[in-house]
Automatic annotation (TrEMBL), chains A, B:
Name of the molecule in the record: TetR family transcriptional regulator
A Pfam family recorded for this sequence: TetR_N
Species the sequence originates in: Chitinophaga niastensis
Segments forming domain Tetracyclin repressor-like C-terminal: 86-184
Keyword Transcription part of the UniProt annotation: yes
Start and end residues of each HTH tetR-type domain: 16-59
An annotated Gene Ontology molecular function: DNA binding
Key words, A-Z: DNA-binding, Transcription, Transcription regulation
InterPro entries per the UniProt record, alphabetical: Homeodomain-like_sf (IPR009057), HTH_TetR (IPR001647), Tet_transcr_reg_TetR-rel_C_sf (IPR036271), TetR_C (IPR011075)
SUPFAM superfamilies the record matches: Homeodomain-like, Tetracyclin repressor-like, C-terminal domain
Amino acid sequence: MSGRPKIFDDQEVIGKATELFWRQGYEATSTEDLLAAMGIGKGSFYLAFKGGKKELYEKVLEQFNEKAITRSKKELAASKDPIEFIRNFFRSIVTSPKKIHQKGCFFGNAIAELSNTDILLMRKAANHLKELEELFHDALTIAQKNGQLKNQQDPALLARTLLSNWNGLGITRRIYPDNEILSELIEMQLKILE
Amino acid sequence: MSGRPKIFDDQEVIGKATELFWRQGYEATSTEDLLAAMGIGKGSFYLAFKGGKKELYEKVLEQFNEKAITRSKKELAASKDPIEFIRNFFRSIVTSPKKIHQKGCFFGNAIAELSNTDILLMRKAANHLKELEELFHDALTIAQKNGQLKNQQDPALLARTLLSNWNGLGITRRIYPDNEILSELIEMQLKILE
DNA sequence: AATGTTTTGTACTAAATGGTAAAGAACATA
DNA sequence: TATGTTCTTTACCATTTAGTACAAAACATT
């Protein structure tokens, strides 16, 4: 019932594939590239991911979201000031290593690349970003209730604006890979939270 | 001195290639796709564009920028109210046909896809977006001088913020392909111009 | 009509790519 | 040790793709 043992862990190789997809995008990444990065052979790969590259990409999106969202939710829950949580979220662009943040937003990249070639994958990425918007929304409603946010505009609209700002920074930070400029820009965007 | 006549015009076929690149992105578009769209054969193609797909893409970026920027500069010059020009620029997202605007910002897409695989092409797209930022900057300084803009913050920072908002909308409009939602979002972003 | 020039069309090559198939390796259980 | 099961490895195939080469076509000039 239990044959030859697997030499790899699914979630682990999905994580390794993430880096490639994030840096090169979906189309520019070949299955052979992925195999090399994951350290497994074709046979194992197509057995574990019968849908090939596409199925792998879906799982990469899923895992990425899982990791990012659960961590952020914990951070928000642990935070005394939901507004400060949002600020830190945006400021992480300039505090995180350049190598990472220069790749932009993984989901934003996916939408940009795939919205006209693979609607299914694009929609998956879009839904994950909606979860981020929801997180903003949660933080804002809490803050308004606690009197930690003067701005009394519709939290749904505010959250959506934050998401769009986030999407923008995913592109702009590659036009201006300069922490000074980005910081100034981010603080400008964050004025909406005053 | 003048051999067999060309059956196509360079700028014209560059225009035809634009649509494909814009919709599918760089990697997902094969040279054969392009040949079909441009309506020419391999021989002609590689004679006119010795650098192949990459050279064609560069020229597509260039032509796109040329068209968009010159048109916008004229619009700004013809406008009595520079702020209204900017507003219209953003509102064009909801007024233009869905088929077009759902492809997002061509330059933004290029940056998202190519920033880690082809720095040269990415930088070209980035520079074109900087020209757009310059246009915003021009409009803002004129408006401030004319007293048409109460907001007295640094026009350079305002222009950069507008650019980033634009980049964001290029992604967000595909997450929310709904004119009501987009309109609300755009008006929110434009409050910076009050 | 002959010549020179530029473009076109097609045939071809070489490499990359996605995916399948089958043999055997590594386990658990009986 | 024999058997059944699952995973791995490698070989293989078919297709797509980028790019080149070359003969012929379509002009202008002489």
